[in-house]
Amino acid sequence: MSFILGLTGGIGSGKSAASQWFETQGITVVDADIVAREVVAKGQPALEQIQQQFGDWVLLDNGELNRTALREYIFKEASARQQLEAITHPAIRQSIIQQLTAASSAYVILVSPLLFETNQHQLTDRSLLIDAPIEHQIARASQRDGQSIQQIEKIIQVQMSREKKLTLAHDVVLNDGDLNHLYAQLEILHQNYLKLSHKNKPS
């Protein structure tokens, strides 16, 4: 199995820009958010389990998951979030492991906004945090998503604190400048990860 790097960062930190840069270097990226959508797609066992747990109202007329209705429901019902996670987290983890195992690049990246919160960092050999000052996070996220500052601040409050993530991550990139500033820092780390992946390979 390849050397696995866990990549994380809060909303508006530049995590996506970083993962896209690694992809341009030929590194396979497994995105936990994409996997989370795939496991609840129409016809998937997890979606059937969600329907059995919560009722037919969780489905749209076309048989797909009604994300908006489910999101609103679990926001009001704390136990519902735990029930949903009990269904989805094992399926997400299994799919992530399969995709990481199948990767053939020099090393492979698991990008996840909840890398530490969901213990997905346990699947990795090393972790990289894309960090940014909160004012940068709010500015970027509001420009990108069109969300209000209040909505973004709520998301930041729910996510693990910057301080906690800084203590958990092996490597930290401070993304407080332009993209070239970010890429220059990533290039140095990329060369290091190539060396680590080479050492990691069985002789």
Structure description:
This protein has a five-stranded parallel β-sheet with strand order 2-3-1-4-5, sandwiched between helices. The two termini are 13 Å apart. It is of the alpha/beta class and 203 residues long. It folds into two domains: 1-27 and 105-197, Rossmann fold; 35-104, Rossmann fold (3-Layer(aba) Sandwich), CATH 3.40.50. The longest helix has 25 residues, at 78-102. It is built from nine helices and five strands. It has helices at residues 15-24, 32-38, 45-54, 67-76, 78-102, 134-145, 149-158, 162-168, 179-200; strands spanning 3-8, 28-31, 107-111, 126-131, 171-174. It is globular. The protein is 56% helix and 12% strand. The model has no long low-confidence stretch (mean pLDDT 92). The relative contact order is 0.21.
Helix content: 55-70%
Structural class: alpha/beta
CATH topology of the largest domain: Rossmann fold
Look at the structure and give the CATH class of the largest domain: Alpha Beta
Into how many domains do the coordinates divide? 2
